[in-house]
């Protein structure tokens, strides 16, 4: 389903919620994605509406914990620290700014920034600290899920229940996609495929040790192809539980309610050089590279 992310829609929704932007009144209980267990933490949050579907259905809301004594103040993109702009340019190439906020206390001391952009027609909301360093990709919910688990079956974020409804068997890919690989990339071995909420396809493949992510439209037309990892050596699929605890902790802290997609170890001889992890967070797919000990090396937004 395509989304309309015009500035007119954004500003209108922000005006509707204007009285709530500085409040901390809503109690949100969150469920951890990627596992069957529930998180017994309840955080005080306030919400920002950021988009409306072109079909006229419900809004998308960003959850951002509001610390006592702090409030959000809308600012121009030009007022953001250079480190934030550099991060956006490198990680979300081609993004469009929707809304930016400065988080500060009553004395005017800046505590951080909230940045909301449109990337590939989807809203992405990020929280940075006062120095402009990424803290987390903020969770999004539809209106009807604000006071629940954050998803409902058939909704935009329904894969948070861990059922992986977006997984597509390689054999079930449209003929247009398999034919495209056979003609354009005959050396590729197709490893994993997903069908996104907007009905586009992501195919992960490997050729001569290089792992690629290739995106196709809902009709099977080629959209883009990116290198996810290029370490050489041997690539092997690994379970989420086999990832280093450092990597798992980073994912949980940086991508609240993320959904695990696939992970690979990249080895040379008996030494693990890197781990490649593909996740879904708020309807956007990311590929993250960790070193052999689980320390983050790089993040690439796929689609």
What would the principal axes of the Cα set say about the shape? globular
Spans with pLDDT under 50 lasting ≥5 residues? 1-44, 52-56
Over all CA atoms, what is the radius of gyration?
20 Å
Q: What is the total number of structural domains?
A: 2
Average predicted local confidence, pLDDT:
79
Taken as a percent bin, the fraction of beta residues is: over 45%
Describe the overall structure.
By secondary structure, the chain is mainly beta. It has two domains: 3-161, no CATH class; 167-301, Nuclear Transport Factor 2, Chain: A, CATH 3.10.450. It is built from four helices and 20 strands. It has helices at 7-16, 82-91, 175-184, 245-254, and strands spanning 3-4, 26-29, 42-53, 59-65, 70-75, 96-105, 110-119, 122-129, 134-137, 140-142, 167-168, 189-195, 201-207, 210-216, 222-229, 234-238, 259-268, 271-281, 284-291, 296-301. The strands form four sheets. Strands 1, 2, 3, 4 and 10 form a five-stranded antiparallel β-sheet that branches. Strands 5-6-7-8-9 form a five-stranded antiparallel β-sheet, with no helix packed on it. Strands 11-12-13-14-15 form a five-stranded antiparallel β-sheet, with no helix packed on it. β14 (210-216) and β15 (222-229) form a beta hairpin. The radius of gyration is 20 Å and the shape is globular.
């Amino acid at each position: 389903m395509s989304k309309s992310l015009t500035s007119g829609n954004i500003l209108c929704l922000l005006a509707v919620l204007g009285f709530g932007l500085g409040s901390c009144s809503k109690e949100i209980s969150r469920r951890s994605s990627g596992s069957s267990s529930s998180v017994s933490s309840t955080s005080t949050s306030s919400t920002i509406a950021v988009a409306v579907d072109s079909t006229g259905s419900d809004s998308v809301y960003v959850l951002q914990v509001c610390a006592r004594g702090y409030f959000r103040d809308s600012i121009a993109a030009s007022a953001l620290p250079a480190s934030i702009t550099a991060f956006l340019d490198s990680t979300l190439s081609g993004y469009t700014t929707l809304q930016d906020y400065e988080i500060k206390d009553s004395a005017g001391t800046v505590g951080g920034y909230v940045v909301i952009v449109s990337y590939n027609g989807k809203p992405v909301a990020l929280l940075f600290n006062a120095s402009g360093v990424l803290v987390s990709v903020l969770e999004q919910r539809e209106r009807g899920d604000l006071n629940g688990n954050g998803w409902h079956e058939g909704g935009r974020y329904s894969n948070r229940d861990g059922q992986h409804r977006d997984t597509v068997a390689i054999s079930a890919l449209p003929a247009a996609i398999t034919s495209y690989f056979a003609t354009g990339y005959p050396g590729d071995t197709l490893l994993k495929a997903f069908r996104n909420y907007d009905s586009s396809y992501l195919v992960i493949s490997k050729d001569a040790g290089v792992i690629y992510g290739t995106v196709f439209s809902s009709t099977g037309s080629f959209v883009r192809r990116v290198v996810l990892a290029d370490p050489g050596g041997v690539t092997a699929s690994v379970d989420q539980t086999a990832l280093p605890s450092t990597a798992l902790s980073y994912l949980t802290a940086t991508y609240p309610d993320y959904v695990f997609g696939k992970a690979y170890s990249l080895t040379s001889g008996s030494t693990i050089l890197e781990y490649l992890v593909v996740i879904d967070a708020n309807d956007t797919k990311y590929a993250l590279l960790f070193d052999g000990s689980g320390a983050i090396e790089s993040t690439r937004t796929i689609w």
